[in-house]
Amino acid sequence: MTLQTDAKPRSASEFGADALIVCDNVVRIYQVEQIEVQALQGLDLLVDRGEMIAIVGASGSGKSTLLNVLSGLDVPTAGRARVGDWDLLRMSAADRLAYRRSVVGFIWQQTSRNLLPYLSAAENVALPMSFAGVRSRARTRRTAELLDAMGMGAKAARRPGELSGGEQQRVAIAVSLANRPQVLFADEPTGELDTATGADVFAALRTANESFGTTVVIVTHDADVSGQVQRTVAIRDGRTSSEVVRRTEIDMWGDSAVIAEEYAMLDRAGRLQLPAEYRAALGLRSRVRLDLESDHVGVWPDRAREPHRAREVEPK
Ligand SMILES: Nc1ncnc2c1ncn2[C@@H]1O[C@H](COP(=O)(O)OP(=O)(O)OP(=O)(O)O)[C@@H](O)[C@H]1O
């Protein structure tokens, strides 16, 4: 089987050695007739076990491609991608099936795509356990536990067509958790829902994370969702471009406030992308001057390029 390549243990210095999900310089190129489309252009991403994160980005930035790679549906062209001990570039077809069946769970935006319409909610949840050979009594017990946790215990006998969109998504989350996956990937899980129903589905994802210990990765355009997770990773042009990290601070009067800080991503070669608005505001172009201070690095425009300076240094 697949599991991490060579029998060597991961060295502590390896990029993301302790992370559950590691994308290291991942490239995915699609060939459409004679044209190459670079959907992922050297993407780096680390996700720790137990995290719940959101991935955001404009249309075409590579979010779906990344989810397809991480969920084992697609294979990167180059780079390194690992989830737990599974090397996503070297899996055989049989490994891929086992990986998709028991290591990862998936929630699609289209509610109808997550459930079989002719089975009840309980039968939908039990099905992946049947495929995995879980015995009948254990299956029944876990099905009830999951549907209760998702607030769907009372509607276990209903078919998807007899449930609202939000209820279907909550059953879908129960289905995805059936075989105790390490990670749950959700692609716009609240995209088809109104705000209140979306909040219920987000609460169910939080239950999956907090009560079942599942790491949750959500691709979303929904600012409400991305504002409620500890970390939001932004993707631009097939790379991670920035992260917003949120933490709760309690002041001396005991009042808590969520502090959100935005970070730019520094890749392993030390490269950093400055936001376009910063570059425009200071006229930063091809060359900048760096100053190392005791607690930060200053980035300054290239003075030699300013018109009056340029004249001073122009050769006669
Ligand atoms: N199967 C494919 N064949 C060719 N090009 C593709 C394929 N899938 C995606 N692409 C291209 O790769 C780039 C990234 O697409 P991707 O679907 O990952 O973006 P996205 O961020 O998920 O967008 P959206 O938010 O619209 O779903 C786009 O330029 C897209 O046209």
Automatic annotation (TrEMBL):
The UniProt entry, under PANTHER family, shows: ABC TRANSPORTER RELATED, IMPORT ATP-BINDING PROTEIN
Which residue numbers delimit the ABC transporter domain? Answer: 21-262
User: Which species is the source of this protein?
Assistant: Conyzicola nivalis
Q: What is this protein called?
A: ABC-type lipoprotein export system ATPase subunit
The record's PROSITE patterns line, in alphabetical order, gives:
ABC_TRANSPORTER_1 (PS00211), ABC_TRANSPORTER_2 (PS50893), SPOVT_ABRB (PS51740)
One Pfam match? ABC_tran
- Domain SpoVT-AbrB stretches: 261-304
Q: What SUPFAM superfamilies would the database entry show?
A: P-loop containing nucleoside triphosphate hydrolases
